[in-house]
Write a structure and sequence with these properties.
five-stranded mixed sheet, about 20% helix, about 425 residues, 7 helices, elongated, alpha/beta
Length: about 425
């Protein structure tokens, strides 16, 4: 028997960050940047107006008041997108729109609200300071500025910045491509009726969805029967398109546990009993010339999901170059106690309720936590109702109301 930490440690020591590739900006969403990005341009690229109003020489309107407005001729009309190089002489004004280039010589913009909005001439009712309502060239970003550092994750805001500084593609750590293989003679495809003795391949769907929700790229392989040859040839076929493989089923001590039988003979996959509940039988190793990581998860749906959360998700994040703190645990105060198995880390399906509450140890928490559904490892209903796994250390056998426990969030629908 090995501990959860030992098994996870072995996995994280084995998996490698994927080599960077260049991708189009939209395909980089959710990826980790693999270059330092310097701006190829000033932002804004030209001095422009921050308001709809009138470009002026500030000195011309210094004496303007409500009672005695300053009257200026309006000699031009500048819309956003105007590309002419215009000049404003003292004593004149130009009507200007937000984002339009400020004419040479002008040094301020009077908002239209402080004028009579005149077209041939404008009455200005208030002074403006030099530079007011003007966005100078390079105010935001200067050419050569380091705008994004290697190692950061790209979301919509970072992609906008990349686009604005002139990039159409960027070097990133790619999203891991993950093949999901279900095994078992009893499995039928999703949508087909499960006859007597059969079950729908819900794991295949769940793990595929989990890979996608994590921000990786899944390839789902239909259920494979419990036959050594079939399984081996499926794995050989799939390895070419995979950065990682996840199997479910066939790893316990039964007579038809084919995954264990086949993978014990090739690669470096090692099968261990991990001191956890649920999810005890686990296998991990690398397979094929590219040393592709293979995770063999137990078949019980709850065990499979817990194993994905605890072992596969951190590995896929590491392969994607993502920081470890993304899977940080949340402390919560127990509402009603429960028992936990001796000598095993328990991952109890539970619901977090946002509420300010203090534990019996005096710790203030932002959440209370309650168990949900029966804790059997085949119980999908309880799993679907849960939004976290309460992680109970191996030494603890009684969880009491008021205890502070650490919870692994299941809630995120999409990480990218
Ligand atoms: P195994 O790990 O193959 O011994 O399977 C353990 C339990 O999980 C059995 O009740 C299986 O029917 C069930 N199971 C295995 N694979 C799947 C799957 N892909 N979808 C749903 N249930 C499964
Ligand atoms: Mg099986």
């Amino acid at each position: 028997m090995i501990s959860v930490e030992q098994h996870l440690g072995r996995i994280l020591d084995t998996v490698r960050r994927l080599p960077p590739i260049e991708v189009g900006l939209l395909d980089a969403l959710g990826c980790v940047l693999a270059e330092d990005v310097r701006s190829a341009a000033d932002l804004p690229g030209f001095t422009n107006s921050a308001m709809d109003g009138y470009a002026v020489h500030a000195a011309d309107v210094a004496a303007a008041t409500d009672d005695s407005p300053v009257l200026l001729p309006v000699v031009n009309d500048i819309a956003a997108g105007n590309t002419q190089a215009l000049s404003l002489a003292p004593g004149q004004s130009m009507r200007i729109m937000t984002g339009a280039p400020l004419p040479h010589g002008a040094n301020a913009v009077v908002p239209v609200e402080l004028t009579d909005a005149g077209l041939a001439a404008v009455a200005v009712r208030s002074p403006v300071e030099v530079g007011q309502h003007v966005r100078p060239t390079g105010d935001d970003v200067r050419t050569g500025d380091l705008v994004l550092r290697s190692g950061g994750r790209l979301g919509p805001r970072q992609l906008a910045l990349l686009a604005a500084v002139g990039r159409s593609s960027v070097r990133v750590v790619p999203k891991p491509r993950v093949v999901v293989v279900s095994t078992g003679d009893e499995l039928v495809e999703v949508g087909r009726p499960a006859g007597f003795g059969q079950v729908v391949d819900s794991n295949g769907l769940m793990l595929t969805a989990a890979v996608r929700a994590l921000g990786a790229v899944p390839f789902r392989v239909g259920p494979v029967v419990d036959d050594a040859k079939e399984l081996m040839s499926t794995l050989e076929d799939q390895l070419v398109r995979a950065d990682a493989v996840i199997t479910s089923g066939g790893v316990s001590a039964g007579a038809y546990d084919t995954v264990k039988e086949v993978l014990s003979r090739v690669g470096t996959v090692r099968f261990d009993k991990v001191s956890m509940q649920p999810g005890m039988p686990q296998g991990f190793g690398v397979l094929g010339a590219d040393e592709t990581p293979v995770f063999t998860l137990p078949g019980n749906p709850v065990s499979a999901m817990v194993s994905f959360e605890v072992f596969v998700a951190p590995a896929l994040r590491a392969m994607a170059g993502r920081p470890e703190h993304e899977s940080a645990l949340v402390p919560a105060v127990v509402e009603t106690g429960w028992t936990a198995p001796a000598g095993k880390t328990q991952f109890a399906r539970a619901v977090l309720h946002p509420r300010r509450v203090t534990g019996t140890n005096g710790q203030d928490c932002d959440f209370a936590v309650t168990l949900v559904g029966s804790q059997g490892s085949h119980v999908l209903g309880g799993l679907a109702a849960a939004n976290c796994l309460a992680v109970i250390p191996a030494a603890v056998t009684e969880v009491q109301a008021g205890d502070v426990v650490r919870c692994h969030l299941l809630g995120a629908m999409m990480e990218a």
